[in-house]
Amino acid sequence: MRGLGLVAVLLQVGRVMAWLAPLNPPIRDWQGKRVWVVGASSGIGAALARALAARGARLGLSARSRSGLEAVALDCGIDTVLAAMDVTRPEDFARARDTLLAHWGGIDLLVLCAGTYRPLRAWELESTLIRETLDTNVFGAMVGAAAVIPHLMQRGQGAIALVGSVAGYGGLPKASVYGPSKAALINFAETLHLDLSPKGLGVYLIDPGFVLTPLTARNDFHMPALISAEEAAQEIIAGFARGDFEIHFPRRFTRVLKLLQWLPRRWYFPLIRRLTGL
């Protein structure tokens, strides 16, 4: 009987350990890892590329700006492969992917950092601005994932990381298009994880708060808990090492926004207006 009791205890411990296990394969050793960073010419993408190169990763850099990529590549080393592209063009994604596969023979991690942001209130909505944001932030990310998923599934290993935003957690002033685009990306990342994790593939969702980049420089309001792109890169790498599904930061800010989502909308709306002053 005692033996059966011990077995029961061990089974319970096993269940608890399974619940506590990382949702993704942790990435701690970057030496020789083949990482494709899309949106690498500035901001978080550029900072992450530099940080990963310093850890021994082999980098493929993509963005629309060839000159911006060349500047980042100078810091990343001679092994870096440049593949300039427009994320809204599926044929560009396919061409860049094939270029990297020809150089490397495989891709270990795709990081989809490319995004656009324009502060917009409801009365400033225009069809061209709506399409520009959704094409880059949503369509571009989905097309990018579609370009590499068959390759990763064939190998049975590898991962995709998508850069969302805390703006996707709930409605915020001046984010009438950007916020919904990032909410869609959060949902997309969750769906990818449901499909791909059982096949041994990683899906990471990166949700930054305010990060000092050329895009946030457009804001004319106070940005709480603002951090540098280099600090953001370190947070992302730490999240990869833990095997997190969602890598959100800075947590002193993101945790507050997560808690706000538990409030009734009757409380949420006036509180957001008071906190933002908008």
UniProtKB/TrEMBL annotation:
Highest rank taxon of the organism: Bacteria
Natural source organism: Thauera terpenica 58Eu
Pfam families in UniProt: adh_short (PF00106)
Coiled coil regions in record: none
Name of this protein: Ketoreductase domain-containing protein
Keywords attached to this entry: Oxidoreductase
GO molecular function, one term: oxidoreductase activity
Family named by the database record: Belongs to the short-chain dehydrogenases/reductases (SDR) family.
